[in-house]
Amino acid sequence: MSLNIVQHATCTFCGCVCDDIELHADAEKIVKTKHACSLGEAWFRNHTAERLYPEALVDGQPATLDTAIDTAADHLYKAHMPLVYGLSNITCEAQREAISLAELAGGVIDSHTSL
Ligand code: SF4
Q: In terms of Cα–Cα distance, which of 82, 87, 85, 88 is closest to 104?
């Protein structure tokens, strides 16, 4: 069986966002990593390579991305002080966008580290 090799993958596990990871995947899951630390390797190797999730979920049900964006925009518009929460396991670019969205919506920001 041939492996699909991905160069320069980004690990978003701990926040260091190492972006020089090499991944080797068979049809179902990542079987080998190069340049990841032990935490990153464990994180990658527990991910499946195939896409198992729908494009988006709305109220726990599969939805199109357009429907999910419309629903999220409606929630944000109606909210008095939305909380943008989490922000771990995502890239710096995604964090930047989330913070901009919180500022635009008059919201507040928190991360899982406050726990
Ligand atoms: S490879 Fe290790 S150090 Fe780099 S982001 Fe992943 S968990 Fe953090």
A: 82
Distance of CA 115 to the CA centre of its chain: 20
Longest dimension (CA), the chain: 54
> pTM surpassing 0.70?
no
Q: Which amino acid is at 83?
A: L
Distance CA 103, CA 93 (A): 16
Per-residue tens of pLDDT for the chain, all 115 residues: 789 999 999 988 877 889 999 999 988 889 999 999 999 999 899 877 666 789 999 999 999 999 999 999 999 999 999 999 988 777 889 999 999 999 999 999 998 777 6
User: 8, 12, 30, 37: which to mutate for ligand 1, most atoms within 8 A of CB?
Assistant: 37
